[in-house]
Amino acid sequence: TDSKYVNTIFETEKPSAVVNFAAESHVDRSIIDSSPFLKTNVLGTHILLEVARQQKTSRFLQVSTDEVYGDAEGESPRNEGDLLRPSSPYASSKASADLLCLSYNRTYEMPVVIVRSANNYGPFQFPEKLIPLMIRNALANSPLPVYGDGLQQRDWLYVEDNVSAILRALQDGNTGSIYNIGTGVDRTNLDVINTICDLLAEEQGTHTEKFRA
């Protein structure tokens, strides 16, 4: 959110493209205090867009999230043209940034592309996220916190697959377009947790009880 510093980087490095991964991304923390999410996800995106526009950067790819579509329980898979129904301050901030990017494409003809990715997992993920949290707690014989009945369904996307798709969108995506990125397979949180427990139990030669709703 430091426009002067960002401008200096652009003038020095002269990037041919910008891929905006920067975001506050934890839903629960956005409910406690939404201010950092608005600052980073909306104002930060605006500053990047404005500097990229002034520097005539040839490509701006905004990394968004499927959270902008809202709750998906019992709904058919989301399409890129569906209405935005964000259900948390985090999702609202990302939806706002998406609309801002599209407005820059329409108003200034900026070469903007948006990708909306499903839930990522992979090495070195911050331990507040579901999969690393469950692995860490299970290895430490600590309680495994399950929110609600655990039947919330999510599309889980391995981070390297996500990166490959983002690179494809950066190179070949149509300007002004939105691309959903996911596996097309939904799993409940309980299924994910039980799979983690089974794999860890197999590795350690122990037995595990199944979680049930």
Tell me about this structure.
The chain has helices at residues 3-13, 27-32, 35-54, 89-108, 130-139, 159-172, 189-204; strands at residues 18-20, 60-65, 112-117, 119-121, 153-158, 178-181, 186-188. It is built from seven helices and seven strands. 46% of the residues lie in helices and 15% in strands. Helix 4 links the parallel strand 2 (60-65) and strand 3. The termini are far apart. The strands form two sheets. The protein has a four-stranded parallel beta sheet with strand order 1-2-3-6, with helices on both faces. By secondary structure, it is an alpha/beta fold. Helix 1 (3-13) packs parallel to helix 3 (35-54) and helix 3 runs parallel beside helix 4 (89-108).
Give the H and E element order: HEHHEHEEHEHEEH
Mean pLDDT, all residues: 91
- Secondary structure: number of strands: 7
Outline type: elongated
Instruction: Provide a count of the helices.
Output: 7
Query: Radius of gyration, rounded?
Result: 19 Å
pLDDT < 50 runs, ≥5 residues: none
Relative helix content: 40-55%
Lateral strand order in the biggest sheet: 1-2-3-6
Class by helix and strand content? alpha/beta
* Beta-strand fraction estimate: 5-15%
Distance linking N and C termini? 43 Å
Largest sheet: 4 strands, parallel
